[in-house]
Structures are given as structure tokens and as C-alpha cells.
């Protein structure tokens, strides 16, 4: 189950804290990846989420055309 709580306000958008469970070795590799991208884990996850949402919106737009 995912724990959720409001953390801060930024650019009129409320930030929400979530808890996820991932294999420890995957997290360590992901942290190394984030370091190479000069992003925090949180920022990198936000970046991937935004990409996925934008890609999905484009797909939906193409399907309705």
C-alpha cells in the first residue's frame, strides 16, 4: 500500500510524498544513475513520470485523430 502525505507547495502545485517498495539492489543502481544525471532520486522519478504522462497524452491525441 502506498502512504501519501502533502509535503510542500511549489509553483501553485501541491507536492505529495509517497512511499514505494523496490528491491534494494535496484534502488542502489537507480541512485547511481541519478547521480550520473545530476538529479536527486525524487527529481528523477518526477522527470520519468512527466515523460510518461506526456507520452500517454500524445498517444491519446493521435488515436482520436
Automatic annotation (TrEMBL):
Record keywords, A-Z: Plasmid
Lyase listed as a keyword: no
InterPro entries on file: Arc_rbn_hlx_hlx, RHH_5, Ribbon_hlx_hlx
A GO BP entry: regulation of DNA-templated transcription
Residue ranges occupied by any CopG-like ribbon-helix-helix domain in the UniProt entry: 15-57
The organism's place on the tree of life at top rank: Bacteria
Name of the featured protein: CopG-like ribbon-helix-helix domain-containing protein
Organism: Acaryochloris marina (strain MBIC 11017)
